[in-house]
Each structure stands twice: as structure tokens, then as C-alpha cells.
Design goal:
It is built from three helices and three strands, in the order βββααα. The chain is α+β, with helices and mostly antiparallel strands.
Length: about 80
């Protein structure tokens, strides 16, 4: 981990297109400004971790849920195979 010391108004460059600036320092709290291209996702760490957890949870599909969805749609594998014939 690279550790840098910056004062209010000073910045750190990451590559050619990301800039992090110390906007304000109040007691133990530091406000940072981030300039980055739109395609670069920027999140607070705790939000990023929640997004990752939700993505993992959403990708874990239960087979029961799939069969329930199929029943709700009114289809079965046998019927699906005959439709194209």
C-alpha cells in the first residue's frame, strides 16, 4: 500500500485520468473529491462491499426457484421442445 501525505487542496493522480483531491479537513474527517471517467465506478468501501455481497447473493439461484418460475410461466421442458417442431 502506498501511503501519501497531502494537505487541503492537494491532489493525487492515478494514471492519466483519475485525480483524487483533499477538499476539506475537519477534525478526524477528510473530504475527498474524485475526478474519473464515467466508466470508472467510484464507491465508498462499505458500499462497494455491499454491492459485491448483493451480486454474489443474486447469482446464487436456487433450483426450486427456477422450477417455480417455470410453473408460473406455464411451461415445461417437454412442451418447450415440441414448440419448435
Amino acid at each position: 500500500m502506498l501511503i501519501l501525505t497531502r494537505k487541503q487542496g492537494e491532489s493525487v493522480a492515478i494514471g492519466d485520468d483519475i485525480q483524487i483531491t483533499v477538499v476539506e479537513i475537519q477534525g478526524k474527517q477528510v473530504k475527498l473529491g474524485v475526478k474519473a471517467p464515467r466508466e470508472v465506478a467510484v464507491h465508498r468501501q462499505e458500499i462497494y462491499e455491499k454491492i459485491q455481497q448483493e451480486n454474489i447473493r443474486a447469482s446464487q439461484v436456487d433450483a426450486f426457484d427456477l422450477s417455480e418460475l417455470k410453473d408460473a410461466a406455464g411451461g415445461s421442458e417437454e412442451e418447450d421442445g415440441k414448440e419448435g417442431a
